[in-house]
Amino acid sequence: MSFLKYSYAWLVFTNYLVLSYSESYYSIIAPGVIKSYRKYTVAVALHEANQPATIKISIEGLSAVEEVTVQPYETKNVHFNISKLERANYYLIAEGISGISFYNSSVLNCEPDAGPHIYIQTDRAIYKPGEVINFRVVIIDENTKPFKTSEPIEVEILDSNGNRINLFSNIVLANGIFEGKCHISKYPPLGEWSIKVTIKGHSSKALKTISIQMYELPKFAVYIEGEREVTIADGIVKAKVYGKYPFDRYVEGNLTVQLKSIRSPDALMEMKFNTTNIVEVEFKIDKLSERINTVFITAELQEKNTGVIHKGLHEVTLHRERYRISVDSDSIEFQNGRPYRLKAKVSHWNGSLVQDRTTPVRMHYHSEIYKAFLDDKGEALFQFEHHGFVYHEFYFNNSKLVFYPIDSFNNVFEGNKDSILRLKLQTNSMKVGVPFDIAVRSTADIPYLFYAIVSHGNIIKMEYVGVSPKQTSYVLRIKPTIEMIPRAMLYIFYIKDGIFHYQETILRFDKEFENKVSLDAPKICQPGESVELSMKAQPNARVCILAVDKRILHLNSNYDLSINNIWNNLASDRTYLPIPATQYPGMVSGVVTLTNANYYFLSVKSHTDKKECLGIEDDWVRNFNPRDSIPEKDFRRKFPKTWIFQCYEIEKENTLLTFDIPDTITTWHITAFSMHENTGFGTLRRPVNILSSKPFFILLDLPHSAKMGELISIPITVVNNHNQSVEASIVMTQGEEYFVAGPEQNNQTFQKTILVPANGVDMVEFILVAEKFGDITIRVVARNALSSDALVTKLYVEPEGIQQQGNEALYISSAKNDSKQASLVFPITGNIISNSEYIALSVGGDTLVPTLEHLQNLVRLPTGSGEQNMVNFAPSILILDYLTASQLDAKTKELMERTKRFLEIGYQQQLSYRHKSGGFSMFGEGKETEPSTWLTAYTIRFFIKAKKYFPIRNDLIDSGMEFLANKQLPRGDFPFTGQLSQPAGQSIYGFTSFVLLAFFEDQSYVVKYRNTIQKALDFLAANISKVKKIYDLSIVAHLLQKAEHPSFQEIWQKIQAQQQQKHYRKWWSGKVASWQKDVEITSYVLMTQLATNRTSLSDDQPILKWLISRRNEMGGFASTHDTVLGLQALVKFSEKYSNMHDVNMKILYTAKSSESQILDKNTLSVDPTMALVLQTQDQF
Question: Which parts of the sequence belong to the Alpha-2-macroglobulin bait region domain (predicted)?
Fold first, then answer.
């Protein structure tokens, strides 16, 4: 047997030795982390000394200097109020000014992004259109008290497109709480919305997602009750299954219960029942595969009368061993500095005690076998002779525990027996406000004690305690305060004979807040009956009560505050050492200790010799390599902020839903809360927890984004749930050289090794520098001899400056076996961030392919006004026309289904702007008194176009047509009524033609409104000589061509006379320079020219090339109406000339820099199978 060897040494501060003060000792403790917007407390103590001492404390990197005078055996706290920190180096410096002479310092960790904790509560997780979002924002400080700030706080409501729906600026907190509400429109963009809270001047932000969907509340819930921990030896898994309505009645129906394993979608066993109340089920598990460690009981209940189906799920962990054996480190007793007695506890997996008093518990230790029987607490007491670094093995029946060597990290230095301090908590539970005792024991006399309590990253309390002479024990009584929950560190120390003696322990408090609130209400009441709520709360508290339909909880419970999340955030708000060590005074508490006394120091890198771990195959240990590859499937990569937060459009009566446990390790809860000025945050009741965890895992906390070239801190928290300490290797791999090591890494490999204590937490940090921008992949692997964990995530690195984009389009038409050449030059000038420029080349088989590829961005879920919504609604119809004509089956059908969904949403949204008169306006009836004739004509025209794809109600079209007809003036023209965000810019002639286009969209309306149409055409013909502006000419010509009017040729000649040509491109432009209007004019002209059937491809292509050159990179144009008209013209061109069944081209391209350096060279092929695919070569 080999032993894990350690190297250790005395660490002596030589700078404290000044002859005249050789008998004076000091100690200074301070958090190892300095945080923005937090109080930073330094505790200064003078121990044995001849006289008082004045000590100066400063923080290098800040203008923070304080002096304090302390008497012998006295301690005083020095407080620094920290403002916003920058990412820089900070040092704690202590200097003796008088009474003692010394100079000492320590580097400090820095958390610039620290701040208050922000939480958001809503009254449900999913809302229907037309409902009201009620929300509360709760902001607490690190001690759970209401957060106070003079900085402005704002709350934004963002829809699924990221558009801001509502803004609450400069909100006022009432005891740390803000209440607000937001009305949802009847036809909003569906999907995930968010509530965002920002404190200006701080890095503190919070974001909560909600969902806007059409849904139905569940009629009832399915419950499965049973043990969650079962032993294989029991042979069966039992459960009670039933359905219940929200009004407390059992469901009658057909029940199917299955036993499943995560390893297979098929059921292991199945039972069916006709149920009226509770059903008890039993599944035999004695013959299950040994590979199955977890099973799931699933229940599907179909209601008898309606056929409605709901489901339930219950997870059961299977254990091969019947009992759980554990050893509490606090039960270990020492004598003369050596462990000699401990207790082993035996319990059932459900936590109940084992009552067997006849079967002994055996402990195998150093070739000896010890036996002891269980007492009434289920504990067996063992007394043994200590033999150094040897594992303890415990056996009870078929159960086994391997317990780590007691002195492996607790008592390495046996030669210093008189320095052993032990702390023993004298209570099983600790609550705020209830004093508790800690027994301090030593193998030598205790001269006196200093003790510090550290919590939430700061020193909460520091006191001196006098001890009677020749005492080896002392009972310390502490009254917990709100600042200590949920976890605090107790750090006890004294100096004797120049040696710094210390001990630390963790104080874990019950999950109860100091602020208490309770409610009492009648259990049964009648509808409409008055009821009373009896509330018990602290005076001056602000109590928030949330009451919802119980079915809301069954639908999705992630609307309330997660109490466990709040608790964990408080627990994780800690300080930690900037010194890599496994033994150092203040290591557990996370504080640096500056003193002129001597203490032991054990470096992380000191224990690197051969090790042995009982219970693990030797070959595995010998072959363990931290860089061994981990299968890709074992990487955790899905980190949603909620586990189950989804909505479903139910299309059929029976729907099977399967959930995977997300990769995030977290918990979710339901509670109510109270806030008080002094006692802080409080809950109504204890939360219900759902925990997802692993024996060993890592947590990676990345910033939202990083700037290229700046130092990036990557903190990695390592959690060890094993009952023994592990040496863990953490490896961060680079993604195609996206990262280089920061200066602190000295360009070494991204690997660190740390020693994580049993059931403990530690952290490593990598300092990186981003060399390139964009999404980069970060992969982290952590391994030890027992288990491993791996995760992959992305970090967005953005270049400095403002992003600038450009787009150049090229239309290529080639005959068979012909070849053509073209070049595109992109002049990139100005103050450009190095390495931030790139070019993306895209190739498609048709002019509409870019639009198809970016359909979700071009045709966004509708929002805003009636005019703005049309730019999202109308292109859906045009694209459906194009896809119908293309007839490329597989790809076409997929795109058409997706486009139809956008069409349906756009149609519903547009109806919200309709008036009872049949007209449409910018914001709808109630917000505007008069409909817009322009918007009505525009809407009705595309409603008619959409009828072949979606069942548009005829009465909506008819009423719109009637509205327009009734607006016609006696001379035949149409007036411009209502308002638009962007005026149409048409004269009376162009506007009359625009309105008439709606009547010509369908032949039935041409017949029905022939008198209206004729009257308008006569008006235009009588004034044809007055139509001079090219914008009006293009619209009038388009109408007259549709009407086959004899005046068309006169107008058409005027248009041809105003054409412009350059570089084989042709277009028309108005006198006022506006690319948007030019696109509209040219689009009208192209559509008219195509409709005459008098031109060839050579005549139409120059116009097409100009239109393509004006498109943006997403396939649209600059604004709203020009996008619709431009796409309409492109569709008409494709319908006439495109033949993607015969397309077969190869594009050879070369990308060069301004210095003619070849950046990329490749070939792209376009054939019928790839005609509708936008092939992109990016970032060269």
Answer: 421-555
